[in-house]
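Researcher: Structure prediction, please.
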Amino acid sequence: MAITTRWMGPGFDLVSGAHPMDRLFEQFFGYGARTEEGGIPTHALPIDIVETEDAYQLYATVAGVPEDCVEVTFEDGMLSLAVKAVPLEIQGKLIRQERLWGNWSRKLELPKEVDSASITAEFNNGVLTVRMPKAAKAKPMQIAIGATDKPVQ
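Model: Predicted structure follows.
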């Protein structure tokens, strides 16, 4: 299941991290356990995003998933995270299953000031960290005017 989240766009609720219509559909269709009332489903790749002076940092918990089953892509201003979690081969009768397996993805619209050519990702101890540096702001500059001896035509 793909969940698309706008990056603090129109209708975005900073507290719960979801659009009101997204929450309404999730409540109606019952997409599983939530982190708290009104939060996004816990199986929807929970993320944290931190803004610093020079970058945005995204942290996604993907514990128990090998690095080669995690994919990060960027296209048309959208950062995509995709995870393929496979079930463990279990010997015996399964009494309770809470860990989810399958394919999950998230798409996030990035702020325009992100330098997309410098985005990096690291995977360490089940946490994916994506660093998205802010682009250098355009600064006014003085342009030197050179003299020439050529006649004006």
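Model: Confidence is low (pLDDT under 50) at residues 12-16, 29-40.
Researcher: Thanks, that helps.
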